[in-house]
Design goal:
The complex is a heterodimer of chains A (398) and B (185). Chain A starts with a strand and ends in a 12-residue tail after the last strand. Chain A is an alpha/beta fold and 398 residues long. In chain A, helix 3 packs parallel to helix 5 and helix 7 packs across helix 9. Chain A has 2 domains: 244 residues, Rossmann fold (3-Layer(aba) Sandwich), CATH 3.40.50.970; 145 residues, Rossmann fold, CATH 3.40.50. In chain A, 40% of the residues lie in helices and 18% in strands. By secondary structure, chain B is of the alpha/beta class. Helices cover 38% and strands 22% of the residues of chain B. In chain B, helix 2 links the parallel strand 4 and strand 5. In chain B, helix 4 packs antiparallel against helix 7, helix 5 runs parallel beside helix 7 and helix 6 packs antiparallel against helix 7. The chains are: A alpha/beta (398), B alpha/beta (185). Chains A and B meet through strand 1, strand 8 and helix 10 of A and helix 1 and strand 2 of B.
């Protein structure tokens, strides 16, 4: 029997790693991710999980240790947040380029300065182009589900890529809410033992991550890009497989009450749930509005996004990160690029909010919808607006 | 039970406000309800005023913001009444629960509260049952006297799970506070 318990998203992720029977965990504690390595270290110490827990001196070392473990074919897990992910940065590229299916939880956190331990998506956006499959979670159940799913997708012999599971620091990591934990045998059915086809073995010597002179570097990179894009088919297939076993079906792009809606709001992560309440309120007043939430961030779900927004006149994109000097929030830039060559496409309006843990209440999303409509009708000189900021902001010009 | 019950706990770092909220949330979840509990996000220091939040509902809870308009506020340390406005945003028909030696009538007139006040000497109960002035489990008893968030027995189960051999004193603290809480409408 599966059981329904109250868990923080952090503990849900740790539980998923335990049920995935990981072989190696290397992590360095950082707020708001701390509860994940703490819980896993406890499980290993108590004998609940037969794994090597490698305490390291930094995040750079954490992911480097994961590379070594993954190279010999171990199922490998780590977790970090904010500055920790930044310190890891160079190794983040290496993990994907060496095709190691490491799974990493990121409890999304703002980047300093000013020093902030609170949540936004700046850390996630800074690793956008690193070649990791990346998904965002809306609630703690998804934190569990996506972690389990991440191992299955990454380890698929057609994929062999690392997967990052993003969930909002504090807003999920520290919130206790119901999570359904499956039976171990269901997990084992979904996630068989991992056989890394290129595991280092002294009897069959091989080199990983060799020197790449100009004659080979382009070929290596395009091979990586092609494999990365192709992973989308496996991602879709494994969402289906996950649903068939556990009864919860996920999609690359999630739609909420979008039927016939002329205006759509697009969000990522746990704030999508609060935004849904604003959608309900607006719909009850007869407004033509719906919500799109991106689950898959990389590889970017082009077709699914175009399909989801094809009948909309206005698309309001809500970002939780600033791209300094750029054309708008990083998500809104991506959306504009994805839609630019379409004959018919919605007007894209860009908002940024929820930075460094700033709360976004239902009324704030209602404001975004109202103001978004106004901007779509009358235009604005500013490339984006920032929600709830004190003082008047001008000069965000392109 | 109301559609959605929102409780804001006022404590000090170390008094266990976050644990109170979490124990009730887990008890509600064990009853098949939906619940959320969370701390005021950020670094916390022992002794500093802290907040914890609790939502309980029969329906899936979507909202992911702090609680700005609580149905109930629970104050774990009476000293906080002079330090922070514990009634900020409290709903018209809200309720205040206070750990205090004073009677609810005295508290009402002292602070001029327009809401019903429930009072219990949780510090004394905690000292007598668990031997330390950690009032969080006693205050759960007071909460359950004032609302029907969850059944006492469901919390008892959670206390066993959380405190193991130390559960007994905490269970007694909760039950005594449940009995001794006095409400002044």
């Amino acid at each position: 029997m599966s059981k329904r318990v109250g868990l923080e998203a952090s503990f849900a992720a740790a539980e998923a790693a335990r049920m995935a029977d990981v072989d190696v965990i290397a992590a360095y504690p950082i707020t708001p991710q701390t509860h994940i390595p703490e819980r896993l270290a406890e499980m290993v110490a108590d004998g609940e999980l037969n794994a090597a827990y490698i305490p390291v001196e930094s995040e750079h070392s954490a992911l480097s240790a994961c590379l070594g473990a993954a190279a010999v074919g171990a199922r490998t897990f780590t977790a970090t947040a904010g500055q920790g992910l930044e310190l890891m940065h160079e190794v983040v590229y290496i993990a994907s380029s060496m095709r190691y299916p490491i799974v990493m939880t990121v409890c999304n956190r703002a980047l300093s300065a000013p020093l902030s331990v609170w949540g936004d998506h700046s850390d996630a956006m800074a690793v956008r182009d690193t070649g990791w499959i990346q998904v965002f979670c809306q609630n703690n159940q998804e934190a569990f589900d996506m972690t389990l799913w991440a191992f299955r997708v990454g380890e698929d012999s057609r994929v062999l890529l690392p997967v990052m599971v993003h969930f909002d620091g504090f807003h999920l990591s520290h919130v206790t809410e119901p999570v359904i934990l499956p039976e171990q045998k269901e997990v084992d059915r979904f996630l068989p033992r991992f056989q890394y086809p290129f595991a280092l073995d002294p009897d069959k010597p091989m080199t990983h991550g060799a020197f790449g002179p100009p004659e080979i570097y382009s070929e290596a990179k395009i091979a990586q890009e092609v494999a990365f894009r192709k992973s989308k088919d496996v991602i879709i297939q494994e969402f289906k497989e996950f649903g068939d076993i556990f009864g919860r079906y996920y999609h690359l792009v999630e739609s909420y009450r979008t039927e016939g809606a002329k205006m759509l709001l697009l969000t990522m992560g746990s704030f999508s749930e609060t935004a849904k309440i604003a959608i309900d309120t607006k719909k009850n007043k007869g407004e033509s509005i719906g919500l799109i939430s991106l689950r898959l961030w990389r590889p970017f779900p082009f077709e699914e996004l175009r399909q989801a927004v094809k009948n909309a006149e206005t698309l309001i994109v809500f970002d939780r990160c600033i791209s300094f000097g750029g054309p708008g929030g990083p998500v809104s830039s991506e959306i504009r690029s994805a839609l630019y060559n379409e004959k018919e496409r919605p007007k894209v309006v860009s908002f940024i909010g929820g930075l460094g843990g700033r709360d976004m209440a239902v009324k704030d999303f209602e404001y975004v919808i109202d103001r978004g409509r106004e901007i779509a009708e009358k235009g604005s000189k500013e490339l984006f607006e920032i929600v709830g900021v004190r003082g008047k902001v001008t000069g965000i010009r392109g | 039970m109301a559609e959605l019950l929102e409780v804001r706990w006022h404590g000090r770092g170390g008094l266990g406000a976050v644990t109170s909220a979490e124990l009730v949330a887990r008890a509600a979840i064990s009853e098949g309800k939906y619940a959320q509990s969370f701390p005021s996000f950020g670094p916390e220091r022992r002794g500093a005023p802290v907040l914890a939040f609790l939502r309980v509902s029969d329906e899936f809870i979507r909202t992911r913001t702090a609680i700005y308009e609580p149905d109930v506020v629970a104050v774990l340390d009476p000293g906080l009444l002079h330090a922070v406005d514990v009634t900020a945003g409290l709903k018209e028909n809200g309720k205040i629960i206070i750990n205090s030696r004073k009677s609810p009538a005295e508290l009402k007139s002292e602070f001029g509260y327009k809401w019903p006040v429930a009072a219990v000497n949780a510090t004394r109960i905690a000292r007598e049952t668990i031997g330390v002035p950690i009032t969080n489990t006693a205050m759960i008893g007071a909460l359950l006297k004032v609302t029907e968030a969850v059944k006492l027995d469901s919390v008892v189960e959670q206390l066993h799970e959380r405190f193991g051999t130390r559960a007994k004193g905490n269970i007694e603290a909760m039950k005594r506070a449940y009995m001794e809480t006095v409400i002044k409408e």
